[in-house]
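Possible regression after last week's pipeline update?

I re-ran a chain I had predicted before the update to compare outputs. Posting the input and the new output here so someone can diff against the archived version. Not blocking, just want to make sure nothing changed silently.
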Amino acid sequence: MAAILTFAFAFGSAMYAFSNKYLLVVIVLLFYIIIQKLLNWHRRQKLLHQTLIEYGGKRFRVRALFDSGNALVDPVSKKPVSIISLAVFLQMFPEISADKILFKELETCIKDGHYINCQTVNGQNQLFVFSPDKIKINGTTVQSLLGVSTQNFGNQKYDAILNMKLGGVL
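New output (post-update):
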């Protein structure tokens, strides 16, 4: 609303410059839509973080979204669980076949990995979690397990979803 009032004040005399009043209304609406898109993009960029995951002597750089809706905690270790995409998981473990993922046999492949029950937007599900060697978010080391999502994250502008409990260290 403030953007519209500012625009109206700054360009109030533009009404006299346009002979077609409808054209002015369309221009004002387009300007408003562009400003809103830019503000939303800026807010979203503040929630994206460069994240480094280390496992088995290898490093993986991902873009991670800090999500206040992810409050998942591992019932065994009581650590927060951040979620990585299936694509990142397959980069980390190229030797694991799709059969192991589909038939939920990952516990035999990854040391200290286990399945936990969790509630997702698609309903109740089992999520495979494991402990990486290290996770650094914007250069800060955090303690979190990684869960493997077999669902698509949607817009693909990020590869991981950070747990909301990590917000205090970011």
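Follow-up from reviewer: compared with the archived run. The longest helix spans residues 21-47. Marking as no regression found.
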